[in-house]
Design a protein that fits this description.
The structure holds two protein chains of two kinds. By secondary structure, chain A is mostly helical. Chain A has one domain. Helix content of chain A is 53%, strand content 0%. Chain A is built from six helices and no strands. In chain A, α2 packs across α3 and α2 crosses α5. The radius of gyration of chain A is 21 Å and the shape is elongated. Chain B is built from twelve helices and 17 strands. Helix content of chain B is 24%, strand content 16%. Chain B has a six-stranded antiparallel beta sheet with strand order 4-11-12-13-10-16, covered by helices on one side. In chain B, α1 runs parallel beside α7 and α1 packs parallel to α12. In chain B, a hairpin with a 5-residue loop joins β7 and β8. Chain B is globular. By secondary structure, chain B is an alpha/beta fold. The longest helix of chain B has 20 residues. The chains are: A mainly alpha, B alpha/beta. Chains A and B meet through α4, α5 and α6 of A and α6, β4, α9 and α10 of B.
Chain lengths: 127, 523
């Protein structure tokens, strides 16, 4: 959990958002002896006190392992899973697919107001 | 459904149903020529396209194993995916973002225009620009490209407004919503774009041109097409006289089948096209079919490509809207004073939330840096660099016997060492992109490194001199008179334009040529 939180630190996201990452790593380790060895060795290297360290210390510890198979696995699982949930969509302000709702054409695709509009010759008519 | 006998030696066999193969199949069948179209992937439809980015990726992508080597950063940042193309009916036109710009005249004379750049294998195209230009016009009309032939542009999205205002403020003049093969109004029996933002997942309205729902069904409607899906070509056979005679493929059950052929057109996207030729070695072609020049697989180009992300204080929602509808054209020029030869496009870009961390940043981005940009997800703007990379004879597709596919055949290895010209162009483009965003008060700007090759080119290139390439100016191989290359492999050099329009233009031209030569009994 603290490894995933160090790789992708979003303080406003609850632990429940990170739990699927931990579960996926556990499942991968249970299914494959090599992955199991990689994860065990990685966690051993970080040490039991890792979770209680400051963020700067945790970043340093993981940074020292950046090229390890353990880090690549942990980063891949964290990034691949954390941002692919309804909770993450809501938290980061992503509205997902829009085809079922008629696209973003009528749902704000050009609603930015803090810059001037693009003149017609460089844009095109809204159908 | 049309059936062509497997021992019908009068059939034209096309391998691959994407931009090159799909268009060629339609053009030949509408002239009454019998075509067997062999496609490795399954067939999707507007209804079956997944709206989950991860599932769509698995549904459409070529995920058979490939390996990669060399100094380029792709193997580190995208392990297992050195090239991102499709394996499905329609090929890579199903996931393409539909930018359809033309090459420029000087890009067809790269060797002459750039001179002898050390460490490159630049050549000039064996084709006059005026000839290509004629077919560009036909291709654009067929694909209904915006800003061409009276087609209106696509409307500017919020993401484009940011890019546009920044670009204008630093002095860029040629900035607009692009030449897109996406309907800005209903046309070609297809709907208009509703700005879904899911171009890469397969366009569920069909507003985006793809051979899946244009060329392929129209070829089927002629009654002259036999489309064989989930059939993977594994070897091309030839007779004693050197002419190709049959394509060996694995059917959906994995059983080996043979289709006799009058002529064979290979359009498997550059990586697999080169691999198939290399796999087709024989006593007569000991280094692979049509490879007496040893150029098959060499000169692999993939464009200088990478993302530029700007984070802002105010909302943008860059995921809303057509993914790539925006371009800055001012850097598409050959001006060695910038520190490199060739030019580059800056094109609009956005990624869905699950894909951004995996595809948008280098593997070295994690921790607080990653969190900063992800926390700004709704306030991000994005661009893609698309520039001309330098061909090198050592950047190549080769067979890797240490890794095998499910048929036991060696997979393709993609070797790339980045040329200093590519690095200098990338650095320049990143500086310019940063300046664009800072001109509209970005709080931070970051970059990906080289992204997986979606534009694979030049691995069986056209050349005037048979020693320097694989095919002539019609894509007909120098070594084998009835073997053609019909995809991006045939480009002599990559230029800076997204390649699909050029592939379609060359396929249209090749179809005219093949039909003419068949009538003249040359084929």
């Amino acid at each position: 959990m603290s490894v995933a939180r160090t790789i992708a630190p979003h303080d406003g996201l609850p632990d429940s958002a990170y739990a699927p990452v931990v579960r996926a790593i556990d499942d991968a380790a249970a299914a494959d002896a090599h992955v199991h060895a990689v994860v065990s060795e990685g966690l051993n290297r970080l040490g039991a006190a890792f979770a209680s360290r400051s963020e700067a210390q945790r970043v340093r510890a993981l940074g020292a392992m950046e090229s390890s198979e353990f880090f690549r696995l942990a980063r891949g699982k964290t990034l691949g899973i954390l941002y692919d949930s309804p909770a993450a969509y809501a938290y980061f302000g992503y509205q997902g697919e829009a085809f079922s709702k008629g696209g973003y054409l009528t749902r704000g695709f050009n609603d930015l107001k803090w810059l001037p509009d693009v003149p017609p010759q460089d844009s095109g008519p809204v159908p | 459904m049309t059936l062509i006998a497997q021992d019908d030696a009068n059939a034209v066999v096309i391998i691959g149903s994407g931009a090159g193969g799909g268009v060629l199949a339609h053009e030949l069948t509408r002239r009454g020529i019998k075509v067997v179209l062999i496609e490795a992937g399954a067939r999707q439809s507007l209804a079956s396209f997944s709206q989950n980015p991860g599932k769509a990726f698995e549904q459409l992508s070529w995920l058979d194993p490939r390996t990669s080597s060399g100094t380029w950063t792709v193997p580190q940042d995208y392990p297992g995916l050195p090239s991102w193309t499709c394996k499905t009916v329609g090929g890579t036109t199903v996931h393409w973002t539909a930018a359809a710009p033309r090459l420029n005249p000087w890009e067809l004379r790269a060797r002459t225009a750039y001179g002898a750049v050390p460490g490159t294998s630049l050549i000039d195209w064996p084709l006059e620009y005026a000839e290509l230009e004629r077919y560009y016009g036909l291709a654009e009309q067929r694909m209904v490209v915006t800003r061409r032939h009276g087609n209106p542009g696509l409307p500017a999205s919020s993401n484009f407004k940011v890019m546009y205002n920044g670009a204008r403020r630093i002095g860029y003049k040629r900035v607009h919503t692009g030449y897109m093969a996406i309907n800005s109004r209903p046309a070609d029996d297809r709907a208009f774009c509703i700005q879904q933002g899911f171009c890469i997942q397969g366009c569920k309205t069909g507003a985006k041109w793809s051979t899946l729902y244009t060329e392929v069904p129209r070829a089927e409607a002629t009654g002259h097409l036999d489309l064989r899906i989930q059939c993977q070509a594994v070897r091309i056979e030839h007779a004693k006289d050197g002419r190709v005679t049959a394509v060996i493929y694995r059917d959906p059950q994995g059983v080996e089948q043979s289709q006799k052929a009058r002529l064979v057109c290979v359009a498997c996207n550059s990586v697999e096209t080169a691999r198939l030729l290399l796999l087709s070695e024989s006593a007569r072609h000991p280094h692979g079919l049509a490879n007496s020049s040893d150029q098959v697989g060499r000169n692999f180009c993939h464009h200088v490509a990478g993302f530029i992300w700007g984070a802002f204080e105010k909302p943008i929602h860059f995921y809303r809207g057509t993914t790539l509808a925006g371009i800055i054209e001012d850097e598409i020029r050959n001006d060695p004073a910038r520190g490199f030869v060739g030019g580059y496009h800056l094109e609009l870009a956005a990624l869905d939330l699950p894909s951004l961390p995996l595809a948008g940043f280098p593997c070295t981005t994690w921790g607080p840096d990653l969190a900063f940009f992800m926390d700004h997800y709704a306030r991000l703007s994005g661009m893609l660099i698309n520039g001309e990379d330098m061909p090198r004879s050592t950047n190549r597709i080769s067979l890797n016997p240490a890794v095998r596919d499910r048929f036991g055949l060696p997979v393709a290895n993609i070797h790339c060492d980045e040329h200093p010209n590519d690095a200098a162009m990338r650095a320049h483009a990143q500086r310019q992109g940063k300046a664009v965003y800072e001109a509209v008060d970005a709080v931070a700007v970051t970059f990906s490194r080289q992204t997986p090759a979606t534009h694979n080119m030049c691995t069986a290139r056209m050349s005037a001199d048979p020693a320097e390439g694989v095919t002539d100016a019609h894509g007909r191989t120098h070594d084998v008179p009835n073997l053609f290359i019909s995809d991006g492999s045939a480009l002599s050099t990559p230029g800076s334009a997204n390649p699909t329009l050029t592939i379609v233009a060359l396929a249209l031209r090749q179809a005219d040529y093949i039909a003419r030569q068949m009538r003249a009994h040359d084929l």
